[in-house]
Amino acid sequence: MEGGGMRRTVVALAALMLLAGACTAGGGTGQSPPPTVNPSATHEPVTIEIWGAWSGRELKQFNQIFPAFEEKYPWITVKSVGNRDDEAIVAAIRAGNPPDVVLSFGLDSVGEFCSSGGWQDLTPYIEQSNFDLSQFPESVFKYTSFAGSQCALPFLTDAYGLYYNVDLFEKAGLTEPPKTFSELTEYAKKLTEFNPDGSIKVAGFIPWAGFYEFGAVTLSIPWQAHWYDESGQHSAVATDPRWKEALQWQKDLVDFYGADELKRFVAGLGGEWGAGHAFHHGQIAMMIDGEWRTAFIQDLAPDLNYATAPFPVPDDAVDRYGMGQIGGTIIGIPRGSPHPAEAWLLVSWMATDTDTLVYMANNVRNVPTTYAALESPDLDVTPQFKTFLDIFQNPYSHYKETSAIGSQDQDLMGAFMEDWQEGKVPDLQAGLDQVAQQIDALLAQTQV
Predict the structure, then answer these.
(1) Which of 124, 102, 97, 120 is nearest to 36 (CA)?
(2) What was the pLDDT predicted at 34?
(3) Helix 13-22 vs helix 86-95: crossing angle, to nearest 10
(4) Which of 8, 175, 372, 395 is the most exposed place for a label (fewest CB within 10 A)?
């Protein structure tokens, strides 16, 4: 699973709406007791199927976990099917022939998965089996539940932080990473180098929406800008003052470079997922990125002298320094699962088995999601990777508020940010008011 934007499978709202129409049983209480199975008894052999979006090398690594499960539950055989995105899962649920277990990178679909009943509320299973939710940091429940339904459990996660080039820091006389946004601006200016013609040679930090991992969500989390009000029924992008502060900070730094100049510079940089990545080549001194970047650097730029740190926070929130954006892979039981009792055995095992989580973390370089796995001596922890383990465990770390409209709120805010950074928005408040109205209109359509 690579990259927050890359690894998040975006599901079309139309497909999700059709799922909502097909699934009349929502989450919450009042469900009948779930089916159970006694692991100590004798059982007829059964094969259960899990669908997920893993592919290629990562799918092969993922499939290595199942022999340990099959050894623990010898009457169960697991068939793992890769290259199944959220759209394929939704279509199978609607058609009445879903797999037993589903795995998704689509955090932004959790609201619809839970509220529609497309992913079953796991609360009855949790209660019946005395499953201990305290194994997980509180932060995971922000992106695995919605509207009273705990319809998913975590299986590895991402954490976002600051990457910085140590050699460029030393050249600029900087000895430690910035902790506040004012320091980030100061550092970015000190680290920036211009060519004689005024073009950018090295950018200290690129606050350009759509460039690598910088965008609406990765900006909002450290600024602690809310997407929705307390009811979850109305957008807060026009009423939470943090949004204006965050966007003004972004625009001020864009203006330092010049929007046209920065746009040209970004257009000439290498792609995010290949050897030409700008950070690998010292073309940018600082950036926001996820823990997986450590693996890319090890593979593609092993001699790069770099360090990581939590991303800066607002100047008036220094007590929250160390927090960051978190959220990753989720697993659950779809509505109509052919073998729900066995499916729960697999879901609960995948979410909590320490050896499995450590193996996956060491191979795909994501953050494990239980306290036991985080503390395991078998976890391969470099100084750069440890930063992200700490961010995940910080009590202020979180993902954006979940809603029933998938990623459409992000799409709207992302488009707005692109216009804003290029100077096409004359009135920031009026522009945010319009985005909020558009989000509210989408929410109203869901009738959640």
Answers:
(1) 124
(2) 81
(3) 30
(4) 175
Please tell me the distance from the alpha carbon of residue 360 to that of residue 354, in angstroms, as a whole number: 10
CATH number at residue 178: 3.40.190.10
Cα(308)–Cα(391) distance, integer angstroms: 11
Of 320, 355, 384, at which residue does a domain stop? 320
Contact 159, 324 (CB under 8 A): yes
Residue 183 scores a pLDDT above 50: yes
- Whether residue 328 contacts residue 366, with contact meaning beta carbons closer than 8 Å, is answered with yes
Q: Are residues 24 and 136 in the same domain?
A: yes
Q: Do 70 and 87 belong together in one domain?
A: yes
Pick left, alpha or beta for residue 447 (phi over 0 → left; psi -120 to 50 → alpha; otherwise beta): left
Handedness of CA 308, 272, 408, 205 (dihedral sign): positive
Token pair 């060491």 in the structure block, residue: 362
Q: Residue 37 belongs to what domain range?
A: 4-158+327-393
- Statement to judge: residues 165 and 129 lie in one domain: no
Structurally, the chain folds into a number of domains equal to 2
Nearest-angstrom CA–CA distance, 358 and 376: 8
**Do 201 and 298 fall within a single domain?**
yes
pLDDT at 381 over 70: yes
The DSSP code for 252 is H
186 lies in a domain?
Answer: yes
The yes-or-no verdict on residue 117 having pLDDT over 70 is: yes
| CA separation for the pair 368, 308 (Å, rounded) | 18
| Non-local CB neighbours of 376 within 8 Å, separated by 6+ positions | 354, 358, 368
Q: How far is CA 412 from the centre of its chain?
A: 18
